[in-house]
Amino acid sequence: TDNVKQLKLKQKEYSFERENPCNDGIAVIGMGGRYPGSKDIATFWDNLKSGRNLITEIPGERWNWKEFYHPDKQVPGKGCSKWGGFIDEVDKFDPLFFNISPREAPTIDPQARLLLETVWETLEDAGYTRHNLNGIQSGKYKTGIFIGCMYQHYHLLDREESGHKLAVSSYWAIVNRCSYFFNFKGPSMAIDTACSSSLTAIHMACESLRRGECTTAIAGGVNLSLHPGKYLALSSTGMLESRDRSYSLGDGEGYVPGEGVGTVLLKPLSQAVKDKDHIYGVIKGSAVNHGGFTDGFTVPNPDAQRDIVIEALNKAGIEPRTISYVETSTTGLPAGDKQELKSLVNAVASFTCDKEFCAVGSVKSNIGHAEAASGISQLTKILLQMKYKTLVPTINAENSSKETELLNSPFYIQKEAAYWKRPLLGEGNCAKEYPRRALINSFGAGGSNAHIVIEEYDCERNETADVNAESIITLSARSEKSLKDYARRIVQYLDKVENHEDKNIREGFTLQRMAYTLQTGREPMEERLAVVCSNIRELKKALVEFIAGNNDEVLRGSLINDTSAAELRAEGSEGREYLQFLVKNKDLRKLAKLWVSGIYMDWRLLYGFLPEKLSLPAYPFAKKRYWIEKTNSREPLSTGMPSMRETACIKEYNAVSPCDKAEVKNLSPAENNMGKPLEKSGDKALLKLEFKERVKQVLGDILYLEPSQIPNKKHFIELGLESALAMEFSAKLSESFNINFKVVKLFDYPNVERLTDYIIEQVDTSENTGIDIISKPDGSTGETGNIAVQKPEGSFITCKGAAVYRAGRIEDVEFGDINVSPPEGSEIQISVKASAVNFAD
Length: 841
What we know:
3-stranded antiparallel beta sheet, disordered N terminus, Peroxisomal Thiolase, Chain A, domain 1, 24 helices, alpha+beta
């Protein structure tokens, strides 16, 4: 047939000699994620290696499955499944860490919140901060973000159906919020191709990097099951598996929905090598296509599924016989799974007659079908298998009919954990060992397909680090509790490194690599700790003592209240010369003392060569529950739009460090002192203290924060005062202080300290001028007239007119613009920056 001829033609184009060593590829340099039963990537690997079934009953916090479940698939209005793969604590979040107020936090789709956390973890895993990833923001460095997502169900939980819709039911908000917080200036795209969404997102990220649209890219997907309607709809179409297992490579009758969020950080391989990044693997080629017209909208096209494998291999320049693992898209739906395996066999068998040389597996057998996050869960599994050189078992595949379908083919189902051998092809002296290579299939229900070819990265370390050299280990956090949690994570990590079964993992660790990664790949925060040590034993001892409450073995500093003293010591030429002197003389203890006191350090100056980065534990977020509460009488206010930064008043506000954790406040605005007459104290300092507390009270009521949780010098943007809340804050300040406060002043006075000084000045000015500001319409006929201003004797105040459209009650007064003639003669033209009107009773 024509198809067979076409395959044979492509076979002729392929040979070992055709392997393209010049295909640079896209390096995966960072990784993060959460999956069912897996709070992080390390736990995910432990679960996969152990072959655990992570399917559970639907948690009661999601919905009461008993109200919607019936085992009989024919019962109308009921679903045939009560099972799924679920992420723990999706209701919890650390909002102020991401410049989001506790008031706004419950209104944000938990998918967006999970994505923020995961992207942060991915950057830290790669050893980057927002600042050094984005460079100097000159346009040379741009980070793109491409995320697969397909469900928007959180807003359906809002039974009150508030005008604000509580959660923004748009995919762009999930992704664009990440670009906003992390200051990413490359493409920012949400991608929905159903189950192939995240692998398509990864493909698009790779293509964007190749086109030069961005220099680094975040790619991945997020998927949650939040509403029973999803299960009812899937059940009505016959797509759900009714049993408590996912039979993705077994004999299934449908699929088990799974949750997941995962991202990777991508960079061109040559640049990643130059930057000494930690490289998990290399994406050698990728492709996307659609099945076109078939026998039905959700009926797959076998030719399209075969062709996409061949296209991706062609792009990668890789001989199919060197592939040793395939992560399939099989879900448990019998017809679709059978077709996929047949297409896969046809694609690879057309190039070789060899049998059973390539393992196939499916992460869905462990966690269920993560839908929009399916592709990133597959890629994460393969990268971990490459890291640990181990093929993990696919479960629930015993005595499967799919084994029969793969007989006499290049493939076999990987049902046990095993060492992942590199392919050795050829005979005798001509034998050649090839890298570990894998394929990933991801097919969408609507016919949109994606495929990726990935290869291990063989790192040859040329470092000559002195393993016994002293190093400065730095840790920082938003609070002392978080700092201790972070130290605890580091101790657990060190225990694993020391006792790891993989020799390469043990030998790949050096104290210098760890120190350099923590120094340059973590954002310095307020609570700081440093340890000067020469080996793991000394470091562990110091951290264990600190966790127990003893600071004798560590250097500590807290910048919660003020950093001015530290900044003063380092400013000017003398400060710079002193730091250079300490660096030159390797006075690590004094350098560590300066850092914990708040001094900025260019840590690279400590190293004759820049060490390679390590994958280290990520920051421990201080999470609390933020969810749509049916009994919540304080309606959250959110437009879902970006905050004050979107206005023209702030052109360039650099990414700021996160803030302290916060609890939702229980006081209502009516319970505070707003509107209480001001009692001016003769003591200037006491007056400022009184006013400052009043400002914090007003702001706290709006953001749902206690006044004690609001630092004096923290930028309002960092506290989550977005545009709509800023308008409310402005109005409440006017009411509380009996002044006419304009919202634009928040840009000039962006924290409590400066705003308090401004308010004191305004109150002083209004009292010292002696002006009795009383305005009223000139006439009582309702006709347009001027505003009369009463002023003290001898004051030089110029009256200007304004248009009042009708007289009557204050609430009914309407203002409009009036035309002002150009200046004539000796007149001058002025620009009014602010104005206010008071009305007499």
